[in-house]
Amino acid sequence: MSSSSNRHGGDGGEVRASDILVKHQGSRRKASWKDPEGQVIKNTTRDSAVSQLKAFCDDIVSGKAKFEDIASRFSDCSSAKHAGDLDQSLSSYNSKFNQKNIYLLSRGSEKRC
């Protein structure tokens, strides 16, 4: 699950990207900052990871939870320590997101997961 925001109001300015990563049995590296031994990751199926991400998306879109809070608490990505902020310009990620069929959620626009 990913999020993007444009700090300059959609005028082609800098774009920031954030993510929530849920690793699973098929992940290349079966360890993360919150599961250094990979015990949980090794027992998480891909379907379970997808279900978790869909539930996170539903909570974010409905307003029950904030993206930053979920990223900080549940993401396997090291960006969790920064509320999911990848701290990079989105332009370097854009083609990778498209190749992986990851949707970008823009603040202030229609949200999809």
TrEMBL record:
Catalytic activity: [protein]-peptidylproline (omega=180) = [protein]-peptidylproline (omega=0)
A GO term for molecular function: peptidyl-prolyl cis-trans isomerase activity
Record keywords, A-Z: Isomerase, Rotamase
Cellular component annotations (GO), alphabetically ordered: cytosol; nucleus
Pfam families with a match to the protein in the record: Rotamase
Known EC number: 5.2.1.8
Residue span(s) of domain PpiC: 12-86
Basic and acidic residues composition-biased segments: 8-17
Region (Disordered): 1-37
PANTHER family: PEPTIDYL-PROLYL CIS-TRANS ISOMERASE, PEPTIDYL-PROLYL CIS-TRANS ISOMERASE PIN1
Protein name: Peptidyl-prolyl cis-trans isomerase
Organism name: Arachis hypogaea
